[in-house]
Amino acid sequence: MPRVLPKAVLTFIDLAFPDDSRVFLNDNNVGPLATVVDLLERLPEELLTLDSASFAALLAARSQLSSDVSGFRSLTKRDKQINNSYPISPMVAYDNLTPLAVIKRELDKCPDSVPRSDLPDLPFIKEATLRDTLRKDLSSAAAALAHDEWKAATVLAGSVTEALLLWALELRSADLVAAIASLDASGAFRTARKPDATLLDRWDLAQYIIVARYLNEVGDETAKAADLTREFRNLIHPGRAKRTQQTCTRGTAHIAFGALQRVIDDLAQRHP
Predict the structure, then answer these.
(1) Confidence of residue 22 (pLDDT cuts 50, 70, 90)
(2) Which domain holds residue 86?
């Protein structure tokens, strides 16, 4: 079952109820309102990063919405013939906002991903913003792996691998020209284009792997594992997948995630 994210719930509410200040319970709206309640119940707990007051507001709004939906569905056919549209009562304790408005206000504070506590902290990356971004991507890759989303896990793990190798080579910018010249002379770029040392952020993963291995940022086995990740990551392109008759599978996802872990281990040793 797909993970429900706060942004997805907000998008659904905006589409179904463009004006959250005037919402009525009727035969047309009761289904979408029940869907909002269902989506809220499926939100992963780790994404509800709210303080106690905001969390209480979200629960209160969900509870009132659920109660209103149940109440409307319990009306008899005769009741609905008399009045088939009932306004949702405002929540007095919350600035007289409708439950939908309260839900939107609180969900807007929640992220769609948070770093998992059981994943590497990447302490060798000193820049806090970059470190947090990579940990969130790493967490997303792990979540995709856990939920059998093989393509997402494969591609996300490859993306983090690429970002980490870029980070490592940025630290070695003074060595790049000599390294590229030596690798070019040895024929190392037979399977990849010769990179431009002045355009490091435009290299592809194959170039990062070759140069990172030459500069001993990663070891031989790690480079081989990362190169497999590069091949699997290319399967995101439908044309390539069709030509090679390959798809992202449990195997590609685990190999990509394993290669990523090896890159992290190697960089942690080289940058204590």
Answers:
(1) confident
(2) 6-107
For residue 130, CA distances in Å to 82, 110, 126, 145, 185 come to 60, 20, 8, 23, 34
Provide the sign of the torsion angle of the four alpha carbons 11, 13, 15, 18, taken in this order. Answer: negative
72 and 154 in a single domain? The answer is no
180 by Cβ neighbours in 10 Å (0-12 / 13-18 / 19+) ranks as buried
Q: Are 156 and 174 in contact (CB under 8 A)?
A: no
Q: Is 114 helix (H, G, I), strand (E, B) or coil?
A: coil
- Asked if residue 103 and residue 142 are part of one domain, the reply reads no
- Token pair in block for residue 20: 């959250």
**Coil, strand or helix at 196:** coil
pLDDT tens-digit map of 202-213: 998 999 999 999
